[in-house]
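Crash report, auto-generated. Payload:
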Amino acid sequence: MWIIAQIFINAIIAGSVYALVASGLTFIYATSRIFHLAHGVVILFGAYIFHFVWIEQGLSPILGVFLSILGSVAVGLLMNELIYEEQRKRHAKRLAYLISTIALLMLGTSSIILIFNTSLKTFGIQTTVYRFDQLNITLMQIILIVISCLLLILLSAIVKYTKFGKAMRATADNDEVASIMGINTRQIRRLSFGIGSLLASIAGILIGLEFNLDPNMGVYLALKGFTAMVIGGVGSINGAIFGAFLVGLFEQIAVWYFGAGWKNSITFVLLFFFLLLRPQGIFGLKRFR
Amino acid sequence: MLLHIENLSAGYGQLHVLENISIQIDVGEIVVLIGPNGAGKSTILKSIFGLANKTQGRILFDAQDITSLPTYTLIEHGVGFVPQGRLIFPTMTVQENLEIGGYLIDHKETLVESLEYVFGLFPALKEKKRELAGNLSGGQQQQLAIGRALMMRPKLLMLDEPSLGLSPKLTHEVFQILQKIREEGTTLLIVEQNVRLALRYVDRGYLLSNGKIRFSGTSKELSDEKIMHDSYLS
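Recovered output after restart:
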């Protein structure tokens, strides 16, 4: 019995990080219709900057968080302004965006290797472990879950109640009509990339603290976020969050029953399952066009 | 003169649709653009709204040059647009749709006033204000699309085929509301396929085919004109 409970706890830990990634991707997809796979690199920049400032330079972790957010948001916004918006001006097709996002993902991964080198980065943090009978959870993991949940609740509230949230949903429904109503949709896309990248940096920091950092993680993180998005129904923030926890759960089940090697592969099994059998996702709010 | 289109040519990418179009509309008029499919009627509205490529010409609104303004700034100048096909925001509630229509309104009281104005015109929307717009009937979606465009109280309201997909009864209702809106001081420019019906409600019209204006005149003249008879009314 305790094994099942432990799997659930681990799933919630992983899922809450993936939820930050997936909701950022959804923000970006909803307003720009781009599957921003290079988001994986934006996450990594956040994580590596945090590690560099705090561990390597020995400066304050608060400064690390601040610079990490700054770095990720800058990288995300630059990708949008220099590549995607320029493509939009030229009436690029969806395939063209997909090719450039893959190129950005590869370019970003190489930049991270060049700047921070390939060695595995660890934070080596000592944290209290709480034991309940045979269940284990660390203080760090509790903090991680709390931060993620608070951010996700804040995000849902922004989308639901604020003027920006409404403008974002209108842009997601139909960007041409949104601009007829006086919404500067380019500004909305910019804000979406900003918010998505901010979430990415937090996800990066939490991933670094809980796991280790290696430069090739970016592609897996992006694909897990993408899978969570497809599971929940592309375009729905709540769906993406739900999908993220499902990805986390399947991952932990696979690790426990089939071994650690299955951790990443199971995500793709899930992805194919949904793409083939239920492409509109569980909530099916938006057609997967 | 409220709207003055001078020698406009426009299209989409390599495709040329409009050739040297000139249109003038005075304050308080209801003007209709008619003509066969592909004549370029919708392209005129889209050109005004920066949604088509203009290759030549000038558009003046309220004596201001609005030719190259970006789409999202036009409503600020007082031009509202109801695009073809009742493009409401389906995943948002009726009230949220209207609030987006009033996106540029800064004062809460002004927004509430505008909402009350629209609910006054379309009482059915008030009853359903918390429902998702995608669940409304076709007629109510068209009411919502018009109401949304009226939130900013535009000086000129342009409608692209408001009767599309509506029953004759609902179409009459829409045109009766449009007349009421005109009486309250809004000028209207309407693209319409349902010529016979439109001419009963409008003051003047332009007949287009193949991207050129073939004839312009009062609704009476348009009904009498032989070209019209040949292309439509027979």
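Post-recovery validation: Residues 2-32 of chain A form the longest helix (31 residues).
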